[in-house]
Specification:
mainly alpha; 84% helix
Length: 375
C-alpha cells in the first residue's frame, strides 16, 4: 500500500508530462489498471481456494515488481499502459487473497476486528505513500517514485516468502482446476453475498464518484479553498477512515454486523448532507472526518460479512466476487457522477450529485435489513 500510494497521486501528471499524451490516453492509462484488477479478482480468489494463498501472492508480487520496473524505464505510452495492467493483476492478488487469508486465520468472533486492523494498516500505508509521493517527485523527479516502488516490491516479496498456507486439497491438479467455476460463481451470488456485493458497488460508486472525483473540484473551484487546504480535508477523512475500520471491526464482533453497518450508513447520510450544506472550512472538515468514519466502518465490516457467509472452501471465490463489485464501483462511479455536473447551471450540479449520493446510501441502509447474519 505504501508502494501504491507513492505512485497513485503522481501517475496522471507523469503520463501527461513524460509522454505528452492526450487526455484520452491519460484516462486509459489510469483506468486500465482498475479494469484489469476488476477482471482478475474473482479468478485469483478461485485459484487461492485450490492452491492456497502463498503461490498466488508470490506471483502477484512478482507482477507488481515487473510492472513498476517497466513504468520506470519505458518511453512508450502503450508499453506503460501494458505495465500498469500487469501491476493491476499483481495488486488484485494482494487485495483479494490478503482479505481471504486474514479472514481464514480467525474465528467469526474475532474476524471483524482482525480485518479492521488489517485494512487500517492498508490505509495507513497508502496515506504515508501519498504524503511522501508528491514531495519525492518534486525533489527527485516523477520516475524516482517508480524506482522506490520496485525496492518496496522486493521487500514485500521477501515477506510473502515467509507465509505458510495451503489449499484444501494441498495438491496442484493442473491448470484446468485453477480456472473459475462459473456455475459455482452463480451459486455464490445468492442471498447475503449478493446483497453485500450490491451494497459494496453502490458505496464504491459514491465514494469514488463524489468524494474522489467531485469533491476536489467542489472544494477548490466552488468553495475556493487552496490545494493545501483541501489536502488537510482529505487527511482528516483518512484519519476517520482508519478509525472507522478499527471501530467497525471491533464493534461488529461485539454487537453484530448488521447493527454496525446500519449505524455506519446513518453516519454517511448525516455527513453527506452536511458536506453539501456548509461552506465554513471548520464545519466542512468535521463532516469530512465523519464521512471517513462512515466509509471505514462499511469497508471494515462488509468483508467480514462475506467471510462469515461463505463456506471455508469457497471463501476465496466469495471475496473475489466482493472485490470485483468493489472495483466495478471504482470504474463506474467517477463517470456516472461526473456526468451529472454539466446538466445543471452553476454549482447546483454538485448539490444534485451530493443528494443522489444520500439516496444511494439510504438504499444501502434499507438493504442491510435483508441481510442474514450468522450468530
Amino acid at each position: 500500500m505504501f508502494s501504491g500510494g507513492l505512485v497513485g497521486p503522481i501517475f496522471a501528471p507523469f503520463v501527461r508530462r513524460e509522454f505528452t499524451a492526450p487526455i484520452f490516453l491519460v484516462g486509459l492509462a489510469v483506468s486500465g489498471y482498475f479494469v484489469v484488477r476488476m477482471l482478475t479478482e474473482f479468478p485469483i480468489g478461485s485459484m487461492s481456494d485450490k492452491v492456497g494463498p502463498r503461490w498466488p501472492l508470490i506471483v502477484g508480487r512478482l507482477f507488481g515488481i515487473v510492472g513498476a520496473a517497466i513504468c520506470w524505464q519505458t518511453k512508450d505510452i502503450w508499453t506503460l499502459i501494458f505495465a500498469r495492467a500487469i501491476w493491476g493483476v499483481g495488486d488484485a492478488s494482494f487485495f483479494c487473497i490478503g482479505m481471504t487469508y486474514v479472514s481464514s486465520l480467525f474465528p467469526a468472533g474475532k474476524r471483524g476486528r482482525a480485518l479492521g486492523v488489517f485494512q487500517a494498516v492498508e490505509l495507513t500505508g497508502s496515506f504515508i505513500g501519498q504524503t511522501a509521493g508528491g514531495f519525492l517527485a518534486d525533489q527527485y523527479g516523477l520516475r524516482f517514485n517508480f524506482f522506490l516502488s520496485i525496492l518496496l516490491g522486493f521487500v514485500a516479496f521477501g515477506v510473502v516468502l515467509l507465509l505458510k498456507g495451503y489449499g484444501a486439497s494441498g495438491k496442484f491438479q493442473g491448470v484446468r482446476s485453477l480456472l473459475p467455476n462459473f456455475p459455482a460463481m452463480r451459486s455464490l451470488l445468492g442471498g447475503t453475498l449478493l446483497i453485500v456485493c450490491i451494497i459494496n458497488l453502490l458505496c464504491m460508486m459514491m465514494n469514488m464518484g463524489v468524494m474522489g472525483t467531485l469533491m476536489p473540484l467542489y472544494a477548490t473551484e466552488v468553495l475556493g479553498f487552496g490545494l493545501s487546504g483541501y489536502a488537510f480535508l482529505v487527511s482528516g477523512m483518512t484519519v476517520g477512515n482508519v478509525a472507522g475500520n478499527l471501530l467497525g471491526g471491533l464493534l461488529s464482533d461485539r454487537f453484530g454486523r448488521k447493527r454496525v453497518l446500519a449505524g455506519g450508513f446513518i453516519l454517511g447520510i448525516f455527513s453527506l448532507i452536511g458536506i453539501s450544506a456548509v461552506t465554513n472550512y471548520f464545519y466542512l472538515s468535521a463532516f469530512m472526518l465523519v464521512n471517513g468514519l462512515f466509509w471505514g466502518i462499511i469497508y471494515g465490516v462488509t468483508p467480514a460479512f462475506v467471510a462469515d457467509s461463505a463456506p471455508p472452501e469457497k471463501r476465496g471465490s466469495a471475496i473475489g466476487l466482493y472485490r470485483t463489485f468493489f472495483d466495478l464501483g471504482g470504474v463506474v462511479g467517477p463517470v456516472a457522477y461526473s456526468a451529472i455536473i454539466p446538466l445543471f447551471a452553476g454549482s447546483f450540479g454538485y448539490t444534485v450529485a451530493f443528494y443522489l449520493a444520500v439516496v444511494s446510501v439510504t438504499v444501502n441502509l434499507l438493504l442491510v435489513r435483508r441481510l442474514n447474519e450468522k450468530k
